[in-house]
Amino acid sequence: MQIPERIQNALLKLKIQKLNEIQIASMEANRDHNDVILLAPTGSGKTLAFLLPILTLLKPNVNQVQTMILAPSRELALQIEQVAKAMGTGYKITCCYGGHPFKAEKDTLKNPPAIIIGTPGRIADHLRRGTFEIDSLQTLVIDEFDKALELGFEEEMSFIIAQLNNLQKRILTSATKMEVIPDFTGISELKEINFLQLHNVPSGLKLKAMRAEGTDKLEAVFRLLCKIGKEATIIFCNHRDAVDRISSILNDRGLAHDVFHGGLEQEDRERALAKFRNGSYRILIATDLAARGLDIPEIRNVIHYQLATTGDAYIHRNGRTARMNAEGTSYLILAEEDTLPTYLDSEPEWEEMPEELELPENPKWATLYFGGGKKHKISKGDIVGLLIQKGLLLKDDIGLIEVQDLASFAAVNKTKAHKTVALLRNEKIKKQKVKIDISR
After folding, report:
1. DSSP conformational letter for 366
2. Of 146, 175, 194, which residue sits at a domain end?
């Protein structure tokens, strides 16, 4: 297909040489149809698959919101914002979500963005308070529509769509096939793009299983982690109490890790993801909240401590690894009486329980927290300069740096972290005094 110049420029900014088949199919479908549903699994490039068609519809002379993107979680909304801004389109993009100061969002909406991204609850709140005009809003995207319904956002989404009287295009994405699209979406003639079957099992994914002795799966997962060693791993549980049980035993045995579930405050969830991304922790214990919509690259292993309750949930979990042609392993931990779930497409390879245990060496990184971010005009370069010039770190002592809206995180050599914090205690960034400490 002929790729418009503005999309070519966006791909250049993203350092992407060519579109994948899902993105091409989405471009073609959205060119010819007003309402499109994209069925695609996690890790398939679906964010770009709906952002690129949007880019062709934006009008530079319209100073109001033109496109709304709804996402079922704050993490996913922020991830979409990150990709959209990295495209370097020149259009203003604003992200709104619960846990973020409403007044700050209201102030930034006084200068309307072309694209507003947000969670259903927060966007509905803005619409009720009339913080931005919707007369020019013609395109609506609901990312992970199935997950939004599952999480109970139907009322908010129905309210939002009822306010958007000038919609001309609707794009839904879903990682599961839905029998019926709810009437509140306003969709009448829908073009479906289905890549679910084609991508259910990533080509680089290995399936393995391990039997626990009796019902003691905690000991089994610990032994498996010792066998895996230093590779990045997510352990999936069905319930928060299981996350806490695993975390407790790993704490007792000195194995560094973090946890991620809906019972945590948003700030704590963001810290956990930042530390996992930068390598301060190689192990993340999580509920299915971490199965979709998170920006976590290069996961080598997924461990199903508790079996997923459905085949779709199993696929979403496995979608965290073996992404974009990489390799990964999915492990099932089974008690003696457990049987293999019926949703498996193939028999797993059985992994032997290791007799000798060697505790993996903990990561060399610690994470420093900075109480300032993009909203304070702080950049990665500012943090690197401060760490080297005032914190007396060498370049090799600094790892991944993330600058978020209101906070920043930097991975530094663990052996130098406390000294660095002491040296920076009274320093400023961009003439601003910000809190600097080792992230808890």
Report:
1. E
2. 194
